Amino acid sequence: MLINTTRFGEVEISEDSILHMPEGMLGFESCKRYVLLQDRPETPYKWLQAVDDPALAFIVINPLDFFPDYNIDLAEEDAESIGLCDPAHAALMTTVTVDGKQGRVTTSLLGPIVINSDNLHAKQVVLQDERYGTKHMVAEKAGTNTGLEVAASAA
Fold this sequence. Notes:
By secondary structure, the protein is mainly β. It has one domain: Roll (BH3618-like). It has helices spanning about 75-80, 150-155; strands at about 1-5, 10, 20, 35, 45-50, 55-60, 90-100, 105, 115, 120-125, 135-140. The strands form 2 sheets. Strands 3, 4, 5, 6, 7, 8, 9, 10 and 11 form a 9-stranded antiparallel β-sheet that branches. The protein has a two-stranded antiparallel ribbon with strand order 1-2. β1 and β2 (about 10) form a beta hairpin. The longest helix has 6 residues, at about 75-80.
């Protein structure tokens, strides 16, 4: 299947790779289908691209690549909403923000995206955990040992 994207033009994706987010992303509830795209395989950064809106995409990371002690307590109703029965089948992503003025790259550990790798249903959850906030530092400057330089300039 071909999808249009603002950043990458037309991209061919497999329908089997579409993430289904029945509640959408916070603030973007009308977009329910996403796909993960990776511009450069050597970086930990990916794009969570909306299938039905070419302009909507989020830079995301696996938070465990940067914060190995990161763990969340997923509410039972959140797990049930994506059909997640076994925590071993969950994948996590967090959204990344690039501050163009200060060159800081941060991620929100407070609002992770939980993906059921069995059925590709996903949900962004808001944690009630004092350890986490919305701006955890990933890097001081985009591109500094992060591989985000190209992604940041495309944002």
